[in-house]
Design a protein that fits this description.
The chain contains five helices and four strands; from the N terminus they run H-E-E-H-H-H-E-E-H. It starts with 7 loop residues before the first helix and ends with a helix. With 121 residues, it is an alpha+beta fold.
C-alpha cells in the first residue's frame, strides 16, 4: 500500500471515504434547539456503501466499476431521502432541518463516483 504509487482515481476514493467519515462529525440535523451529528442520527451506516471501493483500492485489486458506481449512487439516493425526511412543518411554515453533514456526505459520494471513473484497473 503506497499512496504515492496510486493513480488519481484511487487517491480520490480514499479522500472521498475520509470526507464521508468526517461528515458524521458535522451536524446532520439542526432545528435551532436540537442538533445532532451523523453518529446520533444513525447515518453512520451509510459508510458501508464506501467499503467495497475502499477495500479494492487498499488491496490493489481490480474493481468492478458497475458495482462501485451502483453503491455510490445508492448512497446518494439514501442521503437525499434522509434530507427530504427532515422537512418539518412548524406553525404553518415548512423548513428543512438537515444541516451540513448530509450535504458533505453527498459531495463525498460525488467524489467517489469520479474516483471510480478515473481509476485504472
Amino acid at each position: 500500500m503506497n499512496f504515492k504509487k496510486w493513480d488519481m482515481g484511487s487517491k480520490m476514493i480514499v479522500i472521498a471515504t475520509c470526507a464521508a467519515i468526517i461528515s458524521f462529525f458535522f451536524k446532520w440535523v439542526d432545528a435551532g434547539y436540537v442538533s445532532q451529528n451523523g453518529f446520533s442520527q444513525g447515518a453512520v451506516f451509510f459508510i458501508l456503501l464506501f467499503l467495497y471501493p475502499l477495500w479494492i483500492v487498499l488491496r490493489e485489486k481490480q474493481m468492478n466499476k458497475v458495482v462501485g458506481n451502483l453503491m455510490a449512487i445508492v448512497a446518494i439516493i439514501l442521503t437525499m431521502i434522509y434530507v427530504m425526511s427532515k422537512t418539518v412543518n412548524v406553525l404553518g411554515s415548512t423548513f428543512n432541518a438537515a444541516s451540513s453533514g448530509p450535504y458533505l456526505f453527498m459531495a463525498a459520494c460525488g467524489l467517489l463516483i469520479l474516483g471510480i471513473h478515473k481509476r485504472r484497473n
